[in-house]
Amino acid sequence: MTVDLNKLHAVGAIAEEAEGKWGMVIDMDLCTGCQACVAACAMENNIPYVEEVDAGYGRSMHWIRTERFWEGEYPEVKMSAYQPMLCQQCGKAPCEPVCPAFATVHSQAEQINLQVYNRCVGTRYCANNCPYQVRSFNWRDYQDSRVRPEITILANQFNPDVTVRRRGVMEKCTFCIQRIHKAQDKAKSEGREVEDGEFTTACAQACPANAITFGRIDHPESLVAQLARSPRAEHHLEELGTLPRVTYLKEG
Amino acid sequence: MIKRFFVWAISPMGRIAVVIAGMFVFSLAAFGIYQTQQNPNPQPIQFPHNLHVGLGIQCLYCHPGASKGPSAGLPTISKCWGCHQQIAKTQTSPKLKPMLDAMNNGTNFVWAPVAKVPEFVHFNHRPHIAAGLNCENCHGDMTKVTIAENPQVMNMGWCLNCHRERAGDDEAKLIKLTDCGTCHY
């Protein structure tokens, strides 16, 4: 499907971003809803667990979650496919223009949405403007062992490549940019380009059903670009013109 | 308004209040100055960089990670011992006593890192070395210092100055080198 960029007022820099660089394909036929991606993402990206009280306020923190939908009236309910939902890395992202501190900016180099933690002042405008509801906010110092003594032992398993966020900072999926950088750095030191399938995101790596595929969406021969051309492909909330980079393969 | 303030200030209670306010401001300033004059964390041994570099030891001998990955690395006691076991003075010199003790007790040095960036900055040594930078471009001339010290404030403006300079007219390189996501994630 082609997108009319003029209709979206997506001209200039944003028109180029419609191409995209990194992309993801999630096959909802293959997803079993096992939550391995959720756990892997939390481990990779130092995502804290929030406790019962905060979770009750809807402050639980996940960069990826598995959504499920019920069809029909109780008791005649049918479970539809599981749908992992993560930041769609929109080409024309609704979160970006509302940030007063320019903390959520579009990376020109990697064509993804960034969250710059040291710029973020915690207005939460971006989360309120995100149609996918994938941003999470640090309501407390969840990772500070002075505030939560029980986290001290868990601090040993922090990923050193990812910032440990502090209170009052918005965060979201980064498409595992630390892995992108690592692969690019390795490829550059060996004098070559990053190959397709050389690395993948934590969620795609953990998925036992291979439902998640990650790679260069702008390389037509890459696996993720081939899957994205499938007739089953669909983008979520496409009518909003957000140009999402994550393609879902609906039930065939 | 101001006149009324002065009238109040010369009254007994006003004088006390002014003195207390003055003491408060003074103590704040003194505390601030005291904080800036603090020495950094002490090193486990008074390591003379100038002597070692002067002997012709390469930076990468003790900090080998700089050419391979993100962290340059700080040497362990066994690396020190590799050379020092052949130096007779090691056994007698009082300055080298901490190393001898650590070696005998099987403990290790806990070095105090000097060149630090905040935790939300992800610095990688390898591409900088690969781009042809020398250690002294950022860390200063180590032949002139004994205990390592940081010659400059490593802030974002300092990083970006060099990034912009080295990108030059190459548009793609400039985008990559000034992208937020290159360092902050």
Put the structure in a nutshell.
By secondary structure, chain A is α+β, with helices and mostly antiparallel strands.
Explain what the structure shows.
The complex is a heterodimer of chains A (252) and B (185). In chain A, a hairpin with a 6-residue loop joins strand 6 and strand 7. Chain A has seven helices and twelve strands. By secondary structure, chain A is α+β, with helices and mostly antiparallel strands. Chain A is globular and about 50 Å long. In chain A, the strands form five sheets. In chain A, strands 10-1-12-11 form a four-stranded mixed beta sheet. Chain A has a two-stranded antiparallel sheet with strand order 2-5. Chain A has a domain of 176 residues. Chain A starts with 12 loop residues before the first helix and ends with a strand. Chain B contains twelve helices and no strands. In chain B, helix 10 packs antiparallel against helix 11. Chain B starts with a helix and ends with a helix. Chain B is flat. Chain B has a domain of 35 residues. Chain B is mostly helical and 185 residues long. The chains are: A alpha+beta (252), B mainly alpha (185). Chains A and B meet through helix 5 of A and helix 8 and helix 12 of B.
Total strands of chain B: the figure is 0
Structural class of chain A comes to: alpha+beta
Mean pLDDT of chain B: 88
The percent range for strand residues of chain B is: under 5%
Helix/strand-derived category of chain B reads mainly alpha
Calculate the mean pLDDT score of chain A and round it. Answer: 87
Order of helices and strands of chain A: HEHHEEEEEEHEEHHEHEE
Assembly context of the chains: heterodimer
